[in-house]
Design goal:
The chain is of the alpha/beta class and about 750 residues long. The protein contains 29 helices and 29 strands. Pfam families: Molybdopterin, Molydop_binding.
Length: about 750
């Protein structure tokens, strides 16, 4: 898309050049800092930036360009991750003789040590790891897997730049070894989106492309802070605003980055900033279904729905109408946290728009009712016919570069590649024939269930590629105890993490992995807009004995069952892509991706163009939804988690530059702070309904009264374990809390000890 060259002063965020004195990220300073951090290998870093597909969020920029618009696309998230790809080996001897001091380091400090260079092992009772050969490591793992019942074996993969090829081989290896206990990082971010979209529309992915953001009438952001988590999208928002798009935000907290933003790669915005948000609806945490139901109720009352589209392409509309008719406004107001006038105002904005796109993230998904939250969004889109045409659609925006493809190629416990079900005997038999070995039937363990099984003594082997359960899951003490009970843990990663240092029940093995840019034969990722993008192997320095991840997985399986070796070993990455194309037609074209920038977008720019949805009956499905009851006890607050100056659980700063909040902040409204007699910066003890507590400092800002937020993963201690969305396995990342003012450090210590 060619950029609109005319300046637009009416969109400027400030008349102060570069936002001097404003609370905002200082992009150019941060860019300079990250280039300095990569000074040891500048040419290698440059080749990664210009030839590689970004391993940050799932926007899918190739090099420093994309397929949406002209110009440079580069964000600080990618630059911060760049150091992980270019840094040298860590002083691995510290793992053998300095483990106690390593355990005292924070996760950022552990990453700064450098890359993990060699395989290592630690057994029960040993004070440190010892270096071993790859043969010794692989034989040890293979032997333990061979004698382990498949139902007591589990695999988990996080994003960390993992390619589709690695995900595909890992899930095939799991099935080769007889288990469906395999899962990936999507379980704690967008699994409710995948489940809801597959059930209602047929495909668990965005229905439109980024191009469609620019030129739509209405962009609606729900439970999302894309300025913090997918910064490149602010450039899309900038051009959307210039094209006349209205941006609506539905959140408990008025995110500063969504209110206004300085886009560094657009001269006008870099200097004067851009006002993004046009309308803001401040719902209560968990109040989205009530708010969207109220909106749809009013749209129906005014007959502002697309009856032709509904009649021809959907089912379930009469049942939904009947449910909404009996939901009273008072209940919808109480559960949403907004008066009916606000629901009507939102309905009017929708009615005035011919085209609209709804975008959401973890503010909607990370609830026990996350699937229903997403279905409420789909209900609204279907009521207007905003699916199946350009500039209209639904977009679950992904925060990991690998999770969209990871789930689609089968690295999940209930689905095989292409969405085939492990609970469907015909699908299981088909893949058994394709692969030449018996594929297990029946859903395996989800990520959270793996930890529960470990805690209960029902897991013998946990094989993790990347990830850190200690940081991403609720109740870290519980997770630590679970990890300590697993006889064999395998941690395959590029750097040392805190979960590797958890004492072994019997044995812990560390395997050094290569990055996506080091993968022989290149690799692919699938972006939020369903674009499968190729990254070649990029020449540069290599670290120690680190190996390609898909090669490690297949070699473990081959050594476990050498008599069946030929059924699991691929000769090269191209052979993996060819098999993916053969067993899942959805990814047809992946086998032709060979050069830098090669890509194919499955489904084309817009899904469902022909009005034929990918459900069993070819129809889109409305969902009858009742809002969850949100009755806060007196003196309690609803806490939700937030992100800032980080990439998923990788933290890059002690302060969120977007909001200006330190990482120990508790976001609270001025109204609530005044009622508690608190001032900005005061120390408080936050007590959770799970019996745990943590100390925070008050950060007064524009958040919904009776709602508070704290930074994740630090506040995971406040979250309840074993509380999940039953349909998607998403942990609940919210908690009921009490706030206790702390007058002095001594009083704080006494209060904490008494609870």
């Amino acid at each position: 898309m060619a950029a609109n060259k005319l300046i637009a002063p009416h969109l400027w965020a400030s008349w102060k050049p570069f936002g001097l004195g404003e609370r905002k990220p200082h992009h150019f300073t941060e860019i300079a800092r990250t280039f300095w951090q990569n000074r040891r290998h500048p040419l290698y870093a440059w080749r990664i930036l210009t030839r590689g597909c970004c391993d940050g969020c799932a926007l899918g920029t190739y090099g420093m360009h994309d397929w949406t618009m002209d110009g440079i696309h580069l964000c600080t998230i990618r630059l911060n991750l760049l150091q992980l790809n270019t840094m040298g080996a860590m002083p691995w001897e510290r793992l053998t003789n300095d483990l106690d001091s390593l355990k005292q380091l924070s996760s950022p400090q552990l990453r700064q040590l450098g890359r993990l260079p060699y395989p290592m092992v630690r057994r029960r009772g040993e004070n440190g790891f010892r270096r071993i050969s790859w043969d010794e490591a692989l034989d040890l793992i293979a032997e333990r897997i061979r004698i382990t019942r498949p139902d007591r074996l589990a695999f988990y993969l996080t994003s960390r730049g993992i390619t589709n090829e690695v995900y595909y081989v890992a899930q095939k290896v799991a099935r080769f070894l007889g288990t469906n206990n395999i899962d990936n990082a999507a379980r704690v971010c967008h699994s409710p989106s995948t489940v809801a979209l597959k059930q209602t529309l047929g495909v668990g992915a965005s229905s439109v492309s980024y191009k469609d953001w620019i030129g739509t009438d209405l962009l609606i952001l729900l439970g999302s802070d894309i300025a913090n988590n997918q910064p490149v999208t602010t450039k899309y928002l900038y051009y959307a605003k210039k094209a006349g798009t209205r941006i609506v935000v539905i959140n408990p907290y008025k995110e500063p980055g969504l209110t206004r933003y300085w886009v560094p790669s657009v001269p006008e915005s870099a200097v004067m900033g851009t006002r993004l948000m046009d309308d803001f609806f401040q719902v209560s945490t968990g109040g989205d279904i009530a708010f969207l139901n109220g909106t749809l109720k009013y749209l129906i009352e005014q007959d502002w729905v697309n009856r032709d589209f509904i009649a021809r392409h959907t089912v379930g509309w009469p049942e939904l109408q009947a449910e909404l008719a009996q939901e009273d406004w008072e209940t919808l107001e109480r559960y949403s946290g907004l008066p009916r006038e606000e629901m009507r105002r939102f309905a009017e904005l929708i009615h005035q728009a011919r085209r609209g796109i709804l975008i959401w993230s973890m503010g909607l998904t990370q609830h026990t009712f996350g699937v229903d939250n997403v279905k409420a969004v789909v209900n609204l889109a279907l009521s207007q016919g905003w699916v199946g045409q350009e500039h209209c659609g639904v977009v679950p925006i992904r925060g990991h570069s690998g999770v969209q493809g990871g789930a689609e190629v089968g690295a999940v416990p209930d689905l095989l590649p292409g969405g085939a079900s492990v609970n469907n005997p015909a699908d299981v038999e088909r893949f058994s024939q394709l692969w030449g070995f018996e594929v297990p039937e029946g859903s395996g363990l989800r990520a959270v269930q793996m930890i529960d099984a470990a805690y209960d003594g029902d897991l013998d082997v946990l094989y993790c590629s990347g990830g850190n359960f200690l940081e991403v899951l609720p109740d870290p003490d519980y997770v630590r105890q679970a990890l300590e009970r697993i006889p064999l843990r395998v941690h395959q990663d590029i750097f040392v993490t805190s979960q590797m240092l958890v004492d072994p029940a019997d044995t812990v093995v560390l395997l050094p992995a290569q990055t996506r840019y080091e993968q022989p034969g290149g690799g692919t990722e699938t972006s939020t807009e369903r674009r499968i993008i190729f990254t070649p192997e990029i020449p540069g320095p290599r670290v120690g004995e680190a190996r390609c991840e898909w090669e490690i997985f297949q070699e473990v399986a081959a050594r476990a069952y050498p008599e069946r070796r030929e059924r699991i070993v691929f000769p090269n990455a191209q052979a993996i892509r060819e098999e993916i194309a053969r067993v899942m037609p959805l990814y047809a074209g992946i086998e032709r991706l060979r050069k830098p920038g090669d890509q194919v977008q499955y489904g084309g720019r817009v899904l469902y163009r022909d009005g034929q949805f990918k459900t069993a009956d070819g129809k889109a499905h409305f969902s009858v939804l009742r809002p969850p009851e949100l009755n806060l006890p007196e003196g309690r607050f609803m806490l939700s988690t937030r992100r800032g100056k980080q990439f998923n659980s990788l933290i890059y700063g002690k302060k969120d530059t977007m909001s200006g909040a330190p990482r120990d902040s508790l976001f609270i409204s001025a109204e609530d702070a005044a009622a508690l007699g608190l001032r900005h910066g005061d120390r408080v003890l936050v007590r959770s309904d799970n019996g745990q507590s943590m100390e925070c400092r008050i950060f007064i800002d524009e958040i919904k009264p009776r709602n508070v937020q704290a930074f994740w993963p630090e506040c995971n201690v406040l979250l309840r374990r074993r509380v999940c969305d039953t349909a998607a396995g998403m942990p609940d990342y919210n908690a009921l809390v009490e706030i206790v003012p702390l007058a002095t450090p001594a009083l704080a210590a006494a209060s904490s000890a008494s609870h």
